[in-house]
What we know:
- By secondary structure, this protein is of the alpha/beta class.
- The protein contains six helices and five strands.
- Strands 2-1-3-4-5 form a five-stranded parallel β-sheet.
- The radius of gyration is 17 Å and the shape is globular.
- The protein starts with 5 loop residues before the first strand and ends in a 6-residue tail after the last helix.
- About 30% of the residues are buried.
Amino acid sequence: MSETITLYRVFLATPSDVTEELTIVDALLRDWNLQHGQAVAVRLELVNWRTHARPATGKRPQALVNKQAFDACDLVIAVFWSRFGTPTGRAGSGTEEEIRRGIKQGKQVLVYFSDRPAPGQKRVEHSRIEKFKRQFGQKALFWTYSSPSAFEEALRNHLAGVMHELLKEKPDQTS
């Protein structure tokens, strides 16, 4: 029997050092799908540039990521730890550009900063992260966490709240 499912694409915006949190986000989305997806006819799909972008030419690399992977997403989860990322020509990093683009497009954007120690973190990277955090914090609410388990707990709760909001906006498909 076929049924109509609403797909929400969740873009994970991170510099390359954020790997443990990627695994956590993937697991949380799979858990949400198993626990709630069938009951509400919704599926959450994890999207990021590593899995959903492909080699291409003709535009800035971040513009290609935006077109191929980012723009079709409904929700953005951004995570920083020890790296700010690579400048794009329009922002200090791809992650920053994705956050700003998501806000401009009216997407739900959840931003997290890890404050756990980062072995070998360069002072310049720390300064870039702290500067962005100060600027961003003047216009938005972000979350800081101290361990992967604290991130998982916070994101699980925040995702529940976001999905509650999105499901209230979802048109009733029974009519």
